[in-house]
Design a protein that fits this description.
heterodimer; A: 188 residues; mainly alpha; 3-stranded antiparallel beta sheet; 6 helices; 6% strand; rod-shaped; B: 142 residues; 5 helices; 3 strands; 10% strand; elongated
Chain lengths: 188, 142
């Protein structure tokens, strides 16, 4: 049991150090070396420690495999792996955010203007023409009449008020003149 | 001196090892890593497994060897067997030829003085012959 643990520990390290080699190939490498170790253990009287030592450290073996492929050995470490995860997470997050933003901008351009009132045609375009409300469809004529009526009423009101205002001012002025004249007459 | 020797040994062994691996696989037709190492050991060539397996890996990846997993007829665990491909055969033939001519050249080096001596002798002989012919021509024209 202890032997198997030592071999597994060795292979786990090797797996990590093999870095960028595809995982199916890594699995074959490990299976093959594992078989070699078994052969050595059954064939001779060497201990696991000796057999593993003879193989070289996992780092050395990984380096050889990478060298043969013209790949560079990158020493992995526990914190390095953490930052690696963080790096990919942040890339995924920023990517997602970017996509959402791009979609939002697209929506804004596609559906702009949000509300546009076209008075001449009596239409209201909502979300860049996605919805067009035509006043004719409801009671446009009726509404227009109403508008006119209100306008006339307001105009009349204004006229009345102006007339009233003017009359009041005229009255005041007349009263003033009247008073002045009476004063002058008294002084005389 | 020792470091110079070690560096040289590493360089020359490298290519030699690959040639021997090809040669052994060709002889055995189909073999696996452990068998290669133990057979080389019998012949006096020590290869560390940490060196052999990466080389086999690259040879296979480059198409010179073909690997197959044998899950039957083996005790306990699967083994990865290697054979030469046609491309590997062709490559090995070229390597062997090159290695042969390198070896020949190396052995010829010790004979270089004799070769040079023979060359100068040949040259002077040829010159004398030419001279002699010239004299004959002169005699004829007179």
């Amino acid at each position: 049991m202890k032997t198997q643990n030592q071999i597994e520990n060795y292979m786990a390290k090797l797996d990590r150090y093999l870095g960028h080699i595809p995982s199916t190939e890594k699995a074959e490498i490990i299976l093959e070396l594992n078989g070699h170790i078994q052969d050595k253990l059954t064939g001779g009287d060497a201990s696991v420690e000796e057999v593993l030592k003879g193989l070289g450290t996992p780092e050395e073996v990984a380096k050889r495999y990478l060298d043969e492929r013209g790949l560079e050995y990158v020493a992995p470490s526990a914190p390095a792996q953490k930052t690696e995860t963080a790096k990919w997470l942040s890339i995924a997050f920023l990517g997602g955010l970017g996509m959402v933003m791009a979609f939002a901008i697209f929506i804004m351009i596609f559906f702009s203007p949000i509300v546009e009132v076209q008075e001449k045609e009596g239409k209201v375009r909502i979300l860049g023409g996605l919805i067009t409300v035509d006043e004719d469809m409801s009671s446009r004529g009726h509404k227009k009449k109403k508008h006119k009526e209100v306008k006339i009423e307001i105009e009349k009101d204004i006229e009345k008020e102006v007339e009233a205002g003017v009359a009041e001012i005229q009255k005041e002025i007349q009263e003033e003149i009247h008073k002045e004249m009476q004063k002058e007459l008294k002084e005389e | 001196m020792e470091s110079y020797y070690n560096k040289w040994l590493g360089q020359i062994r490298r290519g030699y090892l690959e040639l021997c691996i090809f040669a052994l696989i060709k002889q055995l037709k189909k073999t696996y890593g452990f068998e290669i190492i133990s057979n080389m050991e019998k012949l006096g060539l020590l290869i560390k497994e940490g060196t052999l397996y990466p080389i086999l890996n690259r040879m296979t990846k480059e198409g010179h060897l073909v690997a197959s997993w044998d899950l039957q007829n083996v005790q306990g665990h699967p083994r990865k067997f290697y054979s030469l491909t046609a491309q590997g055969e062709e490559l090995f033939a070229r390597m062997k030829e090159e290695f042969g001519s390198m070896n020949e050249t190396f052995h010829e080096i010790k004979n270089i003085n004799d070769i040079l001596k023979a060359e100068t002798e040949l040259k002077s002989e040829a010159q004398e012959k030419e001279k002699g012919e010239g004299e004959n021509e002169d005699a004829e024209s007179n």
